[in-house]
Amino acid sequence: MINKPLLVLLLTVIIGLNASAQDEPIIARINSMRDDVYTKLQNQQISLDKARLIYKNQEKRLFNDKKYPYYIQCFLFEAVDFYVTKDDYENAAKSVLEGMSNLKYISGVSRDTLFFQLNAELAEYYRRIPNKLNLAEKHFKIGYDFLLKKKWIENQMPAFVITFLSNYGRLVDDLGDSEQAFNYFQQAKQIGQQKHITLNMYAVLSNMAKYYREKKDYANALKLLQEALPLTESDDKTSAIYLAIARCYQQMKKPSDALKALNDSEVYYRKSKETQPRQWVNILTQRAEALLSMNNVESAEKKYQQALEIFIKNFKHQKGVQVARIENGLSEVYKQKGLTGEALIHCEKALKAADTTHQKSTFSFERIIAPQEYFVALTQKADLLATTSPKLSAETYLQTISFISRLRQTFDMPESKLFYSEKVYPVYEKALENIYQLWIKTQDTRWSNAFFDVIEASKAATLGDVVKENSIRPKNLDTNLLAEEARLRQKIVKLQVKLLDSGNEKTLADLSDAKIKLNHLINKIESSSKEYYQLKYENKKISVQDVQKKLGNNTAFISYFLGDHALYYIALNNKSFQLIKANNVQNIKKTLALTYQNINTPPGIDAYKGHFMAQRAHQYLIKPIEKTLKDVHKIIVSRHEIIGYLPFEVLEPKAKADYLVYKYTFSYANSASLHFDSFLSKQNAEIIAYAPFSNGAEAGRFRDQGFKALPASANEITGINGQILQDKQATKINFQESYQDKGIIHFATHAQVDDQDPSKSFIALFPDGKDFRLYTPELYNLSLHKTQLVVLSACETGKGKIRKGEGIISLARAFQFAGCPSVITTIWNAHDESMSLLSQHFYYYLQKGLATDEAIRYSKIDLIRTYSDHPFYWSNFILIGQSNPIDLPSNLNLYLILSIGAILVILAWSLRQRIIRFFLK
């Protein structure tokens, strides 16, 4: 929302754009009229109708004098002075629309400036009207696209552009996409720094602080809010900053500090010359939240009720974020009082406030006006119903998860999807517990399918969205739009890498700018094809029965969910399935951690001592489902949380080195839908291999770069019948020019994983300069849609940070993100010699016609028998994704031709005398 100082500044801009000293008396007259009317209105000396009449007479004079820019500007002043001050955004929007309809009287720079102003204000007014968020989003997009075309506007009116970007970011944040919202705030901050603007920068910093608060980075949030305090231009804005500080302390679980900040907020609020009921409602609401967290339930209830009464009195409706938040708070109050019925009533009221169609018509996602509060209300409702109506509770959980999935799909950047998935993640375990109990009680397949749906929804959500979109885009979208998108994504990757190497505040702002442009381009792409839009948001799920149909007679699928309170999993073969719950989750986690520690620790002179832990892990993960695995030879495992670090081949039923690798062929899946619904392109067996550190003679040079030589990697790639780039040939530039259109890409190199910031993880190529690392963002942007398999014979390429709702953010996942359906990867530091042997055996079996998972299994068994039975050496090589035979180009035909040729030469030599005599005759 624009304030009066900013409007005066904008009027000055109009003067500069329009001309002459003779206009100065007009400006003075307009400002004098505004001050006079505003003062008389405040003192109740004139009525609102009389004030409107004065404005209309002024507008009429300006129109008759053909001072059209000032005439149009008056509609904006009218909106602010009469309606915005009273939070009457409906009438404010009407005034602005009237001004926009009169833009036909002017052209050129003045028209562009006024159009941007009026459209920006209209967008902000619609943002304030609960059922007009779709219109707000539409006009913010129009304004931003206009800004991209008319870059000079940023120079002419930077303060206004800063406010526009800040407001746009707030809308995006209200709609749930905090990551994308931050890009708008970052862009606004950068303009302020470049142009040395302080006006309205307090709001930008406050909005940025909210982003950090939601990411639980409270130190950065509080720092930004302290920076914002000196920049506030009025008491009401200072009050708003203290309100934000209170919110931060409340989230830090420091309610006493929150109440102190709220006291400061109230002091400045009461000093303010303008009454702002929304702010007072927020102060009361946050007081209630702080009191509730201090178990002062009665006082909290009174504050919530007071806040609600003031809101209804001032705004004459019960819709939007503030009402939904209050009703959710009251629901929690009555829950703590043990009044479940009352709590449920307020849940319904919160849902009604957040959804304009709630209980009135068929649910429409597009009409949700407060998605975050809607999610809170649904979750609270499901929790309250859990004991009294388990079935309705389960249905509400499923509704919540469906809503989560739909909202996540509206986010265009992977970072946004990941962040949101983590925020809502706790609901999955609650849903699984409720649904599992219903399954135990009823044995109804409805609940077994629901159990499977929840596990599916909790895994690889972002990766699933990307894979799905990549499969439908080429068939339904304009190639020019896709090319433009590819160029923009490439720019983003370059900026991300620059930020990792030597980036600064400017790089971060450029990155935010590029991400915003990509977001707008994606919206343009969506609107360009109805077919694409329908397919993207199609709510198609893979069911238990679908999976069973796709399983062979000897194959099983197991999907795990390791929660805070229990381990849940489902095991399926093509005829039956089992649902399992194990309660002793802390013991399970400890066992899995110790098993992983035993197998990934480089062995010394002692024998392997992990047999007992491997047996215990087997008891938790496999023994309960032995009935389902009775006639099974292949197992596809969808892991979860720290289970993702464990190769199941090392598990032992009897703790006697009876590893499961002898009994089963294992492969691993991110989720059932990703594994069974993925589309395999036409087979392409052309291989390329990279071994940048195979030259032991250059060990010193490699060590100077932080790496050691990998001489065994030379043997590893020797048997590969394909293109080999070794040592100085295996540079980053050569990789970028050679990898495309290859069926198999093999890396025999170093890799480094950053568990704290996955974007810093990389694969190393030949260090011929500074730029030899392939960072994760670059891997995401590769084009691997013709690649069947990537082999990562490098350290920890399957390891990484665990993100709730997604899984392990590993280098292997990055290749899948880029379009490759299958990756062979490692989950701890690779041993050079054993990895080399494994790879050689793997290609040997692949060339014999075995599927990739079987080739890996036989390679491991060979290594156990010929090299070492310690799992450190042989179990670190796993397949994630599809498993199929690959018809490799073989050297056998060449060997056969050479052999036949040699035999013929020998025969000819031995029979040479007879041949000579024959020809002499």
UniProtKB/TrEMBL annotation:
TPR repeats lie at residues 202-235. Residues 614-882 form the CHAT domain. Residues 1-21 form the signal peptide. It comes from the Bacteria. It holds the Pfam family TPR_12. Keywords: Membrane, Signal, TPR repeat, Transmembrane, Transmembrane helix. The chain crosses the membrane at residues 892-911. SUPFAM superfamilies: TPR-like. This is Tetratricopeptide TPR_1 repeat-containing protein. PANTHER family: RAPSYN-RELATED, TETRATRICOPEPTIDE REPEAT PROTEIN 28.
